[in-house]
Recover the amino acids of this structure.
């Protein structure tokens, strides 16, 4: 079953013993293409392969649309949580992104704290956001 689940994740980054996996899907039923709005949902799994507990404190996203416009998003935790991961534990969450172009990308990092209080960054892998190109009117 684990292999089936991990095959859903298309993008992976490993930093300091923490693995971040991402699966992304375009959501046509939540998009309003006629209004120039495209929506994606992304599923993230964070895995602690270290020998110590780590806690996710904050996130930093770089979201780029199809015109090259960059939006930086910083915030505490993920979807209202600051998960504490013991060795071998994982944390999954789902979130979304809306763009005014039919393509773009996301990447970034999480800031974690170790048991000794030291902060460290964990990469979120680059992943493309791609939807069918809008039809010419």
């Amino acid at each position: 079953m684990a292999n089936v689940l991990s095959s859903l994740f298309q993008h992976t980054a490993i930093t300091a013993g923490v693995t971040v996996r991402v699966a992304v899907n375009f959501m046509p039923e939540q998009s309003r293409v006629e209004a120039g709005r495209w929506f994606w949902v992304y599923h993230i799994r964070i895995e602690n392969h270290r020998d110590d507990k780590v806690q996710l404190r904050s996130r930093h996203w770089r979201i780029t649309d199809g015109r090259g416009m960059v939006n930086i998003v910083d915030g505490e935790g993920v979807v209202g949580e600051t998960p504490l991961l013991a060795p071998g534990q994982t944390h999954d969450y789902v979130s979304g992104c809306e763009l005014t172009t039919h393509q773009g990308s996301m990447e970034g990092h999480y800031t974690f704290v170790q048991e000794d209080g030291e902060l460290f960054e964990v990469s979120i892998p680059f992943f493309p956001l791609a939807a069918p190109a809008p039809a010419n009117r």
User: Anything to note?
Assistant: The longest helix spans residues 2-8. The chain has one domain: 2-130. The first strand starts at residue 11 and ends at 15.
